[in-house]
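Quarterly update from the structural biology core.
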Amino acid sequence: MTRRKFEALVERALRRLPRRFKDKLVNVVLVVEDWPDQKTLADLGIEAPDTLLGLYRGVDLTHRDSAYANVLPDTVTIYQGPIEEEAAGDPGGMAEIVRETVMHELGHYFGLDDDTMHRIEDG
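Predicted structure, tokenized:
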């Protein structure tokens, strides 16, 4: 899939975010990269065959206080290559994986940890 089409999936996932959450997105950017680099994987303790679909870097909303000012934006990175591999050529499946990944990484922005998000995702 071209980068432009993949980025459109990311943008669509962001547009589908409920307004009450979209309105709270402040000082955060979403970017698309091809693959996570080896340093990032090593820092997170991720070894093949596992990989990383997305990553949140920043100060989540629950840790921001009056000292939080004049800082660079938090970053949500969505990794195209691993998502394409995960989807195995299924465009509908890829759109769903992108949506789930965007939601998961934005969950970190809102202060949720992985365990909490997995409980929410599992229903």
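The chain is about 45% helix and 15% strand.
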